[in-house]
Design a protein that fits this description.
- This protein is of the alpha/beta class and 450 residues long.
- Helices cover 35% and strands 23% of the residues.
- It contains 14 helices and 21 strands.
- The strands form 6 sheets. A 6-stranded parallel β-sheet has the order 2-1-3-4-5-6, with helices on both faces.
- Helix 2 links the parallel strand 3 and strand 4.
- Helix 13 packs parallel to helix 14.
- The structure holds S-adenosyl-L-homocysteine, iron/sulfur cluster and FE3-S4 cluster (F3S).
Length: 450
Amino acid sequence: MDNAPKKVFVKTYGCQMNVYDSERMRDVLAPLGYAETGTPEEADLVILNTCHIREKAAEKVYSELGKIRRMKRDRAEQGAEMLIAVAGCVAQAEGEEIVRRAPAVDLVFGPQTYHRLPQLLARRREDRKAVVETEFPAEDKFHGLGEEALPRKGVAAFLTVQEGCDKFCSFCVVPYTRGSEFSRPVEQVLAEARRMAAQGVRELTLLGQNVNAYHGLDARGRSMGLAGLVAELSRIEGIERLRYTTSHPRDMTEDLIAAHAENRKLMPYLHLPVQSGSDSILKAMNRGHTAESYLRIIDRMRVARPDIALSGDFIVGFPGETVSDFESTLKLIKNVGYASAYSFKYSPRPGTPAAESDKQISESEKSARLQDLQALVHAQQTAFNAAMVGRTVPVLLEKPGRDPGQLVGRSPYLQSVHLQASPTLIGTIVDTHISGVGTNSLSGHYANAV
Ligand code: SAH
Ligand code: SF4
Ligand code: F3S
């Protein structure tokens, strides 16, 4: 294997799981001599870690590939080689099609094959033609990603504990791009968390497409749910905060709700997508829950943890969505009161049942509904942030801020908080008196300095 110093540029699209996967790809490439660069022009290997969730996501990749192809040509003129790789969910879904549409691409590989990256690169070198790898290997990708991880840089980090989805919502590509549900064994997760804690990580966000469907095997071969895993992780010295995302309403079990009441390390913030407030649309989406059952979960969460804040995902203009269905969604949003939310126009995805429906909603109607929904959510988010002023909250200090002497941290509700503090405090949690609110962040000062 050629281990001469080389440079890799990784661009990440899509969800946090891709962010985590990109880190792991860097880990796998480091022993081959690849160091990370922020400049694609000087890279020996460019990896686009792609997302397929909505139409524009894939189109962005093709337009990016156009730019990178020109860089590759410029490099070739200087006598240097640049390999272009497409990883992630577009790679999984499109496979060979990517090489047909963008012949400059050297490697295409799906999310379950990152541990094979060294072999894929070697094959590309030997064959001198594009390598496309989109099968779902039987072996555990995480195991293959090894223990030799590079140090994690920040005090807050992602840790994938579950991957894939068996729920098959009728609009969604994830079950096809990520494969069926898989949970990492408990000991493997704990070992990685301990390593991160030793490197200075204080806040862990556990990731999974359906993270609360987690059911990993423990050391004795028994299945453990997310509540159990959270309890185990909260015992690790150095880990001060735990979060998890994304959850599905169907898997919000009693013990997980109880964990929010009992475990102070579990942050009072829950991202729980509902997609729609109309039962007939939820049924057509194959969500397996109603608006009412979702609201009952929220009620129980609020009993367990009165200070919990909520976030959600919404789709507008799902095929067949009437004005009255849409109004039910607005009603649900008013009912819940979100601290933040992500909302999207329905995007027909090839191969999914909803894309075949003849009840598609016009683009202009989707845009109008999205605008209404976002105005409502924005008002809720603004009110939530404004209500922080005058409160004292624990802030985990993460990094230097924009102004000299300033640090940026996170509130329990994932808000960025700016305050004057010494850099030696990075990685600690300080009680902060919130005194101001901007568009995307809060400002404050030490509570004990008031
Ligand atoms: N597993 C999570 C969501 C993963 S995808 C869950 O079940 O909630 C993230 C979000 O993208 C979804 O919650 C949904 O709101 C949105 N999304 C997924 N497919 C979409 C599509 N075809 N069109 C528009 N939005 C979509
Ligand atoms: Fe997609 Fe539904 Fe699975 Fe979430 S639960 S990843 S929306 S199929
Ligand atoms: Fe996108 Fe794949 Fe994540 S489709 S949202 S990168 S699971």
